[in-house]
Write a structure and sequence with these properties.
InterPro entries: AraC_XylS_family_regulators, ExsA-like_N, Homeodomain-like_sf, HTH_AraC. Pfam families: ExsA_N, HTH_18. Keywords: DNA-binding, Transcription, Transcription regulation. By secondary structure, the protein is α+β, with helices and mostly antiparallel strands. The protein folds into two domains: about 160 residues, Sandwich (Jelly Rolls), CATH 2.60.120; about 100 residues, Orthogonal Bundle (Arc Repressor Mutant, subunit A), CATH 1.10.10. Helix content is about 40%, strand content about 20%. The strands form two sheets. A six-stranded antiparallel beta sheet has the order 1-2-9-4-7-10. Strands 3-8-5-6 form a four-stranded antiparallel beta sheet, with no helix packed on it.
């Protein structure tokens, strides 16, 4: 599950999976443009799963919950280049290229097909990861601007995503949590994504569910795990992470405490 990251600077990252199978969860506050170089990346949202192979590029929007599963493919580990498009860089860009979003598209991953523009852009970044020092800031700015320009050329709707600097609005709490309880995120992230302070989030949660967020999340995740084990005949080692548990031992302990028997004994129940 280890991974390495080589940074030219904070905004342009080369990531290389040392393991051949890696799982992790992600909620970034910046848009990320990702080119998979080798291996395969599965991005699991609450309602849709995306799979990206070598040579494919996608734009991962900010403030979205997802589980990432990185696989080896054809004997090669997962490798990718990630270009972060920060709000600061985007605001600087759109100050010179004014655009006012009229529709909200920020919740969807944008997949980009084969493009000589994207190919040449990512190829130009590879030598930077061999530098012993950080990439000069002015050069980094040029590459970020180049990335934004290419995206605007390839997708006429991308401005609606990149130029939207609004923060999450106050979401309907019950529906949001029912859709996203399996993501193992800090409570502060859940509160932020529902447009609440942590104090208001806990208060509204108690009113909606008549229990604490921690107790409710554990119960929901264990119920999902029980369903996957019992009805789909899956193994504990294959489902503990996607049901929101950090490791197998924690999952097994919580499962036995709640149901009275170990997850490996479910076939006998």
């Amino acid at each position: 599950m280890a991974k390495r990251e080589f940074n030219s600077n904070a905004e342009i990252v080369f990531t290389c999976g040392e393991a051949f199978h890696y799982k992790g969860e992600m909620m970034v506050e910046e848009h990320c443009l990702v080119r998979v170089l080798s291996g395969e990346l599965k991005v699991i949202h609450a309602d849709k799963t995306y799979v990206f192979g070598a040579g494919e590029t996608h734009l991962f929007p900010r403030n979205q919950l997802a589980t990432l599963v990185k696989y080896e493919k054809e004997g090669l580990p997962y490798k990718a280049i990630v270009v972060k498009l920060s709000n600061t860089d985007l605001k600087d860009y759109y100050a010179l290229h004014p655009f006012k979003p009229t529709i909200a598209l920020s919740g969807k991953i944008a997949r980009f097909g084969k493009s000589p523009l994207l190919d040449s852009f990512f190829q130009s970044l590879l030598p930077y990861f061999e530098l012993s020092n950080k990439l000069p800031e002015n050069l980094s700015k040029l590459k970020i601007t180049e990335a934004i320009t290419i995206l605007r050329t390839l997708d006429k709707h991308v401005d609606e995503v990149l130029a939207d600097f609004s923060e999450p609005g106050k979401a309907e709490l019950t529906a949001f949590m029912e859709r996203n309880y399996m993501f193992n995120m800090p409570m502060e992230k859940f509160s932020y994504l529902t447009g609440r302070s942590i104090t208001t989030f806990k208060r509204d949660f108690k009113k909606a569910f008549h229990t604490t967020p921690q107790k409710w999340l554990i119960q929901k995740r264990l119920e999902l795990a029980h369903h996957l084990l019992k009805e789909q005949r899956r193994k504990p080692v294959d489902i503990y992470y996607e049901t929101g548990f950090e490791n197998l031992s924690h999952f097994s302990f919580a499962f036995k405490k709640h149901f009275g028997y170990a997850p490996t004994q479910i076939e006998n129940k």
